[in-house]
Amino acid sequence: MNPMPTSCLWFIPLLPFAGFLINGTLGRRLPRAVVSIVALLFTALPAAIVAWLWMTMCAAGAPDAIEVVSRPWIAITGFHADFAFTVDHLTLIMLAVVTGVGFLIHIYSVGYMAHEEGYWRFFAYLNLFMFFMSVLVLASNFLLLFVGWEGVGLCSYLLIGFYFKKTSAANAGKKAFIVNRIGDFGFLLAMFLLIAHFGSLSFTQVFASIAQHPEWQQQGAHFLPAICLLLVLGAAGKSAQIPLYIWLPDAMEGPTPVSALIHAATMVTAGVYMVARCHVLFNSSPLALSVVAIIGAATAILAASIGMVQHDIKRVLAYSTISQLGYMFMACGVGAYAAGIFHLLTHSFFKALLFLAAGSVIHALSGEQDMRRMGGLRTRTPITFWCMSAGVFAIAGIPPFAGFFSKDEILYRTFTSPNPLHIVLWLVGLLTAGMTSFYMFRLWFKTFFGEPHVDPHANAHHSVHESPWFMLLPLVILAILSVVGGWIGIPAALSGSNRFEHFLDPVFANGAASEAVASTTGSGIELVLTLVSVLVVVAGFYIAYIFYYEKPGTAAALAERHRPAYNLVKNKYWVDEFYSAFLVTPLLMFTRGILELVVDHGVVNGSGQAAGAATRSLAWIERKQISGNIRSYAGWLAIGAAAVIAVMVFGNSLWGTR
Amino acid sequence: MVPTAYYLILAAMLFSIGIAAFLIKRNVITIFISIELMLNAVNLTFVAFAHMWHQVSGQIFVFFVMVVAAAEAAVGLAIIISIFRTRQTLNVDEIDLMRS
To answer: Less Cβ around it within 10 Å: N or C end of chain A?
Structure first.
């Protein structure tokens, strides 16, 4: 096939945008079939372009990166930013995830949303999201990345609050938006620092000047760690890491396809992508890297522990997403960017699958999300069951499913990294792997095995039913990907060649050093580590099996015996309450007490009222003048004339000669 | 020879009387006469200055003013007659159709 003309790159974001414009403006009047055709077509075409791009970029002799640049976008003295897209191998992987998984989720949505109000609005937002997300991954400078970054945040807000008549959904949307603002504030400051110190926001220019000035690192220039830490704040907001992870569980108020697309597969991984994209910056600051690793590990284990006791099926998956994102952060923090991106890829397959399958379960039970009222669905929704199983096995890390390879790669890289905390990080990661396995199999057993606990009243009219094919087809494709997706990165120790990592070599050229370390330590350690993590995973499975299949009462009895600990986890460590008491309430008090009463009512309203009163009294005088009496007018005239004469005669002596 | 200032003081007095009458009186005809009085006060000033500077232009202005005043008197009296015919009064306080 011919190599792709680079101008086609523009169409990857622009086509979904066209879909958004059509559905957003005309969608209300169009029949549902047309709306879905438009939405699907304008996401399928970019996916096709991306496939073509893959063939172009993977052909022999293809350049490592191709770039398209528009006319200057912002140009002032000493600084300019272009509307420019760059495609390298990292972007290719992200594009594949965004357009490929995105397209599958669009197909699913056609079935899932079929009975919902606001069908056109949903697809318009979804297409808008695809536009911003492709801008984000294609951007070749920080500013354009930020445009996409904010855009996906907007779409996330719109789609979380899709059922805006429900108060909880509207509030969840606002929460996500506001928490993300905190992160964006960090990102913005980082960009200002970049402009101040590098005079540019282009990735290539910034990274090149870091490479040219190794003395910055040796002399301990303070701006590099500062920039990195601010970027980490931004990434923590978008990717739901400590301390800004609280919005993601609430984001589950949105429709399930949205949870799958935005809050599992694509948008929340933007932070990981950004850290990987800025790996040159982060490599220059060991401090920032350690912070990333610690944040990632802490988030991974915290979210996993909360996920173990949730009852809402989507919330379990939400906490699982936070935990897996923590894994990716940990990988980036120890310098194993390729492993992080590998996990990002496999995670996008199996987590999208898990959400879509959960959506299918919810659909089957006519909107029931509480796992305590599920059970025994294995025989009634067999296809969903098998797909879900593939996802559960993949995320738990059972070989040879996709999650096994990526998770093991991260654990191995953490263990062998030069970071002084590497053993602690590895242990946390290992423990998290066991917990992941436990809560995923808990979900699996509670949903699909045992006795049905479906509320008989709620289902008087709708019997439990398998979902339509529109929803099952993406499930099946994603299930296959969840099984085989990890095989592209089989490490050398397991007689693979880790093609995934070599594919990313041109991007993470500095990663060659860590690979050298890895090869000297030999494959023996890797095998042992793999064995250990598989044993932990199996242990997690076994505990879940005992608790929720063999003796279903065990878990409740255990929780009863350790009531304080259970309550702590059950209430999500009271983090939301802590934020509410120490941040939100003082802020609200300040707003209501000072800003509303003094500034708003006093200054703003007061000055308005004063202006009104002044005008009114002036008008009163004016009204007295206009009496309609001719002689009073004549009198005014005479007074005026007298005044003019007085000024002319005595003015000079009063104000002096000019 | 009478100093110019005397003429000017007389003119100012005439003009002030005219203004006062204009503002105080209610009868249209009296108001009309007070306007004539003010015009003639101005005329007197013109003539006094023309005499002082030995220039004719001031006196020419006076002729203009007289012509205009005559024309104005014709139009004004016509209006007054027409007002009287329609409203049976010459009191300006009662002629207030334009009052809002």
So the answer is: C
Q: Does A628 touch chain B (CB under 8 A)?
A: yes
Q: Could you identify the residue written with the tokens 């959506």? A: A359
CA B96, CA A206: separation in Å to the nearest integer?
Answer: 82
Q: Are A436 and A353 in contact (CB under 8 A)?
A: no
- How distant is the Cα of A651 from the closest Cα of chain B, in angstroms? 20
Burial class for A185, CB neighbours closer than 10 Å (0-12, 13-18, 19+):
middle
A414 and A366 in contact (C-beta within 8 Å)? no
The tokens 């140009």 sit on which residue? A75
List, in order, residues 6 or more apart from A18 with CB less than 8 Å away.
A42
Token digits of residue A244:
């800004």
Reported as half-sphere exposure (CB side, CA atoms, 13 A), residue A557 has a value of 7
**Which segments of chain A have a pLDDT < 70?**
1-4, 220, 454-463, 493, 495-496, 509-523, 628, 656-658
User: What SS3 state is found at A75?
Assistant: strand
Q: Which of A96, A102, A111 is nearest to A49 (CA)?
A: A96
- The Cα–Cα gap between A29 and A654 comes to 76
| pLDDT tens profile B23-69 | 888 888 999 999 999 999 999 999 999 999 999 999 999 999 999 99
pTM metric for this prediction: 0.79
Taking an 8 Å cut-off on Cβ atoms, the answer to whether A629 and B96 are in contact is yes
Residue type, A78: G
Contacts of B23 in chain A (CB under 8 A): 631, 634-635, 638
- Select from B23, B98, B100 the Cβ nearest to the Cβ of A631: B23
Q: Which residues contact A100 (CB under 8 A, 6 or more apart)?
A: A47, A50
- The alpha carbon torsion through A456, A459, A461, A465 (nearest 10 deg) reads -130
Residue A657: what pLDDT?
58
Name the fold adopted by B4-87.
Helix Hairpins (1.10.287)
3-class DSSP state of B13: helix
